[in-house]
Amino acid sequence: MTKPPRKPPQPLLGAADVPIRSKPRRRRDPAQPQLPLDPMPARADLCLALLKSRPPKGPQWAFEVKWDGYRLAVYKEPSGVRILTRGGHDWTDRFPAIAAEARRLPVSTAILDGEAIVLDEQGRSDFGKLQKSLGGRGGNRASRDAILMAFDLIYFDGHDIRATELSSRRHLLEGLVPAGGEEAIRLSEEIEADGDTLLRIACEHGLEGIIAKDRNSPYRGGRGGEWLKIKCVQSDGFAIIGYEKSTASFGGIGRLLLAARKGNEFVYVGGVGTGFNERSAAELREEMDKLIIRKPAVNTGRKRDAVFVRPELVAEIQYGGWTHDDKLRHASYKGLREEQDMAEIYELT
């Protein structure tokens, strides 16, 4: 018999009535010797979640909501605040509210790991709204709607804490960013529930999925299995290799033509004709028309009224599965990924 969640489903989308908070940090005793300080890394290699079909079992696993946005690391130093993307690009100016809140954190030096998101009316992260707030792919607008859901602490008060276990890092993070806050930096709270139960509740609320983390693990860059992601719906990045024209659709785009990777090559995986609105279709058409080529980069079979482009744009596609011949089923366009976000293209096995 599975253990029921300690909190009802609704707190997944908002602050709980009695948020979980860490114990207040005690002031350091001046009589105690100070530990030597560690140099702050100029850029930390971020820990990535490995995709799994089902949540793991066991008391060592902690669970959180999976947020749909841009992965960021926030560096707070005496000289100021830097906000870097997973690819190492400086996006401090693009997230002024997050940067301002980072300056107010009650610590002199820190590196926070988190996800920049924009919430919809139901309190769910909405990737499309985030992109719109930033001016679309390649835009340079500053988003004042974006908030950072902080879920880990890499460096704290002069000390590199990546070698310590997750439970200790979380304790420090919860003291720095209390649960239930409404500021531009908020805590991505752990949900105490059985993984299968939490996944079901998350899917019922229309969330993207959940993250499982080994409480005893250190912080290691890359996809080593310390963090796992379990999705309610399948959503991945695919290269845009062209589009079919239509006079009846937004932007004249009837269907995007998509490709995945297989080894060192691209493989055609079908198309997507839904998920666009007038604005996103116009932005897409403008980006694609800069990349037009005469011959397709991938064999797509015979296509009428098709325009082919260099496979440089990565679209985030939500889909229901695969056909027997490796084509996407029930695909829907979610948005373009940024190059600075180190957008990954789905790999066929």
Automatic annotation (TrEMBL):
What's in the keyword line of the UniProt record?
Ligase
Q: Which GO terms describe its biological process?
A: DNA recombination; DNA repair
Q: For the ATP-dependent DNA ligase family profile domain, which residue ranges apply?
A: 148-231
InterPro entries annotated for this entry? ATP-dep_DNA_ligase (IPR050191), DNA_ligase_ATP-dep_C (IPR012309), DNA_ligase_ATP-dep_cent (IPR012310), LigD_ligase_dom (IPR014146), NA-bd_OB-fold (IPR012340)
Region annotation Disordered: where it falls in the sequence: 1-39
Q: Which GO terms describe its molecular function?
A: ATP binding; DNA ligase (ATP) activity
User: CDD domains, alphabetically?
Assistant: Adenylation_DNA_ligase_LigD_LigC, OBF_DNA_ligase_LigD
> EC number(s) of the enzyme?
6.5.1.1
This chain's protein is named DNA ligase (ATP)
The organism named in the record is Rhizobium lentis
